[in-house]
Design a protein that fits this description.
Blueprint: H1 3-9, H2 11-16, H3 18-31, H4 35-55, H5 86-92, E1 112-116, H6 121-132, E2 136-141, E3 160-164, E4 177-180, H7 187-190, H8 194-198, H9 208-226, E5 229-235, H10 262-282, E6 286-291, E7 294-295, H11 306-315, E8 320-323, E9 329-331, E10 333-334, H12 335-347, E11 354-356, E12 361-363, H13 364-374, E13 381-384, H14 399-405, H15 413-429
Parallel strand pairs: 1-2, 1-4, 2-3, 4-5, 5-6, 6-11, 7-10, 8-13
Antiparallel strand pairs: 9-12
Helix pairs in contact: 6-12, 9-10, 11-13
The protein binds nicotinamide-adenine-dinucleotide.
Length: about 450
Amino acid sequence: MRPETTIQNDDAHVMINPKRFSIRDSMRYMFQEQRLLFLLVGIAIAALVSNVVVVFPSRSPPLQYSEPITGGGSFHVAELTSVPRRIAYELHSGHVNTGVRIPLGLKPKSLRVLVTGGSGFVGSHLVDRLMARGDSVIVVDNFFTGRKENILHHLRNPRFELIRHDVVEPLLLEVDQIYHLACPASPVHYKYNPVKTIISFKAFFFTDHKTNVVGTLNMLGLAKRINARFLLTSTSEVYGDPLEHPQVETYWGNVNPIGVRSCYDEGKRVAETLTMDYHRGLNIEVRIARIFNTYGPRMCLDDGRVVSNFVAQALRKEPMTVYGDGKQTRSFQYVSDLVEGLMRLMEGEHVGPFNLGNPGEFTMLELAKVVQDTIDPNAKIEFRPNTEDDPHKRKPDITRAKELLGWQPMVPLHEGLPMMVSDFRQRIFSHHREGGNTISSV
Ligand SMILES: NC(=O)c1ccc[n+]([C@@H]2O[C@H](COP(=O)([O-])OP(=O)(O)OC[C@H]3O[C@@H](n4cnc5c(N)ncnc54)[C@H](O)[C@@H]3O)[C@@H](O)[C@H]2O)c1
């Protein structure tokens, strides 16, 4: 009698030599009735189905961003219905950061997003939107112009992290996307330490270039190392005092390279160059936004930007300061429109640069009139000599953003301004004094 048969029928024998029985018996069982063949076919079918799910991710419905922004008054709520599904962008474009495939029936994982400058004006509103759509957000900020109050409402959320860090110093984090906003954006702040502005904020005597060059370099290096998508917030200042009007993205600008504003203007131009070089040379996924004047709740109170200046002055019953004859023009975009544009740009397929601004054009005197209408019809205007290299005209051509991102501003000035005014009123007249933002306007 063969041992196997004996074993099958004799429990005592099984106890004596179980290992020999187990392997032989399993092998025999496997090769009987073509079971091995069926097993291999099953594995092949499972692999095929898993691949089909990955190749056709667009069957899933598009993402809807409809949650309201919290804090800072009532906001315009927009929907990103045409934004490609994030998982589709990650898998389709080969931009898979985690290496993990999403099995059939499971929800796509939330993204890990780094926002440098996330406690500042624009950054904090962007963080609100990212948190509302379920992402995990890391804010890196050195609080030069940012305020903890802007992000206080997220501090207890386990999906939120705050790191006090200067982007001039390298940093290693694991994220899927990097929104690089860290940079002093108002003339008062970027002129405070111009070399740091171009490089970033390290040496205290010189300021603004450093943030733009070394800070951007560090964040691009991080994006390369972890294969993250990188978005640069550039500025309409790259057009300088433009000789073309309105400004299209193909216009190369008219910038004074040695003027007092050039730490910011040229710093951002170099940042754009670095971003494109990393894209072309190292195949990093990048996006470039050229932001035009933006206003809204949480702006610094006294930072020399015209909307915040006028609003704060009118609320304090001080005369509104108009530089020059007041006939120079600007366009003013409400912050929720900008955040919408930035997110569409990040999720979309186009590198840019894209102008993100409101094409509605106002002279400084017209803006002062809107502020009078909103706050105080008796508010006075005081004329002062114009500042150096102040552009005469500024108005974005947003055709490209309309066509390729499906984006355009939704909030007109007369709707956006009251939301900013109520935030400013509360901050100016509350007993709490804002730290670090007391530099007087120019
Ligand atoms: N608001 C606008 O109208 C406008 C227009 C054009 C471009 N932008 C760009 O958008 C971005 C955000 O602007 P904002 O208006 O929110 O300005 P903001 O000053 O309110 O925010 C900038 C943030 O970056 C932080 N920061 C500055 N230097 C840093 C450094 N070296 N390391 C770490 N953090 C640093 C500041 O503390 C602040 O929180 C900037 O890059 C700016 O150039 C803004």
